[in-house]
């Protein structure tokens, strides 16, 4: 396991997320267990994690990703989600991408506890077996975009493009599917400080930034298939400018959709 000390960013993330307890013996107990039933899937996903980012690959190995996620599965084997939802944790696709930034800024053991805290307390419905939180997030993205920019929203819907099609990966991964990693880390600084629900507005902001290009495209899917590289300062600035445009009742749903089952159920019915 990696032995480097936590970066200043990693230490601040732990404070913001409320990670006050780590246990080497407990983590080693989970690591020492046999392969979980999700091991093969975890290994396949681990190999693909940020594979084009050389700095990441130099610091975080595939084995570290696999160990952390396999340990996570074992640690939650008999636990229930501590939220408004009563269901078991499991491994779902996309967890590998979410785990990656934690492993980049923290030693493996500390990354495990920070990742586990983030998943369990901040976005449990995103890792529900049906990913219902992320699907609700896509619904909210459509609702907000129609309010914020009706012209862009209509242009996309005329081309049969909804957030489920173009934005789901960004929503599910909290923008971690878009490079570069250094910009993502800055986005997550803001996200952990002011609320993980802002992820939805981050995605809208990325679209607003390329608004003119999208409107000029007969088939905007080509532009949305791969979002432009992240620019954290610009995305955050646009996000701050968009928040006042969202009605309070809709914003309340954005805040709750990561963890409140009733909100998600209402959005998806």
UniProtKB/TrEMBL annotation:
<keyword id="KW-0206">Cytoskeleton</keyword>
<dbReference type="GO" id="GO:0071957">
    <property type="term" value="C:old mitotic spindle pole body"/>
</dbReference>
<protein>
    <submittedName>
        <fullName>TBC-domain-containing protein</fullName>
    </submittedName>
</protein>
<dbReference type="GO" id="GO:1902543">
    <property type="term" value="P:negative regulation of protein localization to mitotic spindle pole body"/>
</dbReference>
<keyword id="KW-0131">Cell cycle</keyword>
<dbReference type="InterPro" id="IPR035969">
    <property type="entry name" value="Rab-GAP_TBC_sf"/>
</dbReference>
<dbReference type="GO" id="GO:1990334">
    <property type="term" value="C:Bfa1-Bub2 complex"/>
</dbReference>
<dbReference type="InterPro" id="IPR000195">
    <property type="entry name" value="Rab-GAP-TBC_dom"/>
</dbReference>
<dbReference type="GO" id="GO:0005096">
    <property type="term" value="F:GTPase activator activity"/>
</dbReference>
<dbReference type="GO" id="GO:0035974">
    <property type="term" value="C:meiotic spindle pole body"/>
</dbReference>
<dbReference type="GO" id="GO:0031030">
    <property type="term" value="P:negative regulation of septation initiation signaling"/>
</dbReference>
<feature type="domain" description="Rab-GAP TBC">
    <location>
        <begin position="3"/>
        <end position="195"/>
    </location>
</feature>
<dbReference type="GO" id="GO:1902413">
    <property type="term" value="P:negative regulation of mitotic cytokinesis"/>
</dbReference>
<comment type="similarity">
    <text>Belongs to the BUB2 family.</text>
</comment>
<keyword id="KW-0963">Cytoplasm</keyword>
<dbReference type="Pfam" id="PF00566">
    <property type="entry name" value="RabGAP-TBC"/>
</dbReference>
């Amino acid at each position: 396991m990696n032995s480097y000390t936590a970066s200043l960013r990693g230490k601040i993330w732990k404070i913001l997320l409320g990670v006050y307890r780590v246990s080497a013996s407990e983590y080693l107990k989970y690591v020492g267990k046999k392969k979980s039933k999700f091991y093969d899937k975890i290994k396949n996903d681990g190999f693909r994690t940020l594979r084009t980012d050389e700095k990441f690959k130099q610091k975080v190995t595939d084995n570290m990703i696999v160990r952390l996620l396999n340990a996570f599965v074992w640690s939650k084997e008999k636990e229930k989600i501590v939220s408004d939802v009563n269901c078991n944790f499991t491994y779902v696709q996309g967890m590998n991408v979410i785990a990656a930034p934690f492993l980049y800024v923290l030693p493996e053991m500390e990354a495990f506890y920070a990742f586990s805290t983030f998943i369990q307390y901040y976005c449990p419905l995103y890792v529900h077996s049906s990913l219902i939180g992320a699907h609700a997030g896509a619904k909210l993205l459509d609702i907000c975009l129609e309010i914020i920019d009706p012209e862009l929203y209509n242009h996309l819907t005329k081309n049969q493009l909804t957030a489920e099609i173009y934005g789901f990966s960004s929503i599910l991964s909290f923008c971690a599917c878009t490079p570069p990693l250094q910009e993502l880390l800055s986005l997550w600084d803001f996200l952990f400080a002011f609320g993980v629900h802002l992820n939805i507005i981050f995605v809208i902001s990325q679209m607003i930034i390329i608004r003119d290009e999208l409107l000029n495209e007969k088939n905007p899917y080509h532009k949305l298939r791969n979002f432009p590289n992240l620019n954290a300062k610009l995305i955050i600035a646009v996000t701050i400018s968009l928040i006042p445009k969202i009605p309070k009742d809709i914003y309340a749903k954005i805040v709750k959709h990561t963890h409140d089952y009733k909100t998600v159920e209402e959005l998806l019915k």
